[in-house]
Amino acid sequence: MSSSKAKLEYIWLDGYKPTQSLRSKTKIVSNFSGKLEDCPIWSFDGSSTEQAEGGSSDCLLRPVAIYPDSARKNGWLVMTEVLNADGTPHESNGRATIVDNDEDFWFGFEQEYTIWDISINRPIGFPAEGYPGPQGPYYCSVGSTNAIGRDLVEEHLDECLDAGLNVEGINGEVMMGQWEFQIFAKGAAEAGDQIWVARYLLERCGEKYGYKINWHCKPMKGDWNGSGMHANFSNTLLREAGDKAIYDKICQAFEPTVQDHIAVYGADNDQRLTGFHETQRIDQFSYGISDRSASIRIPIATVESGWKGWLEDRRPASNADPYKVAAVIIDTVKKACATL
């Protein structure tokens, strides 16, 4: 136990619609143990975040995960969920909608984003007028003319790893200035916690470099790829099935629930899910082996492992809430499993 004072950065999601934003503030604590259970419940002014009225503005922050913060001396990152003053989940609290008490579900999110040059209001690497060369060279690129923004991306990766986030990789994406990181966790809530903390760290790195992080799913109109947050998921049945018929039934269970999923898969997703640029149309549903134009892709690794593995829902947008995405996927899969 340290006798010095620790900086606890409490991170939460505000109540803005249709897309919530990150908020944070610092609490100074003496003799902090570094343990989650020693992070006190805190409060904030919900009237300033679209989460309460001015006459009764206190909302509570309940710590749900803690990570070391290598960028600050004696710093900690504390992910929290928002509660009403009476301790019940706030309506903006997507984490509270997850029903996965036994953490049977594993999630791997592929978070795409665009580094945004605020001086020209375009992706970094784009000229102030006109366009760079067409898509093709930028995906997993190397070299100063194609891999734009690597310094920021590498610094973000180091901060995530220092925090203990389970980042499984990074890569340049299809549009210039667009990048991706992947995070995996055994447990839906933990996966969501880690994505949100990684987003927070990325926003903070952007502050240092003078860039905005653009989470919009179609930041550039025209013949440019949008940004997604592909959700790879499994439960014990999918991991041990060994039967194509089980995979077919679970995939087919997603078709009648399209609207329930699209409702929480991110704002303006109709601009991204057009049937082009590696997407299925927003009003259609399909699944297939190794099919990146489908709503749900069955990875070839799952098939080669004898139908034991996971599925990838390619529809969630980059600006979606991973808590809400996980919650609706779990609900659909559980209902499908109940009929098997």
TrEMBL record:
Domain of life, per lineage: Bacteria
UniProtKB keywords: ATP-binding, Cytoplasm, Ligase, Nucleotide-binding
Single GO MF annotation: glutamine synthetase activity
Catalytic activity field: L-glutamate + NH4(+) + ATP = L-glutamine + ADP + phosphate + H(+)
ATP-binding among keywords: yes
InterPro entries documented for this protein: Gln_synt_N, Gln_synt_N_sf, Gln_synth/guanido_kin_cat_dom, Gln_synth_cat_dom, Gln_synth_gly_rich_site, Gln_synth_N_conserv_site, Glutamine_Synthetase
Assembly, per entry: Homooctamer and homotetramer.
Family of the protein in this entry: Belongs to the glutamine synthetase family.
Protein's name according to its UniProt entry: Glutamine synthetase
Organism of origin: Thalassoglobus polymorphus
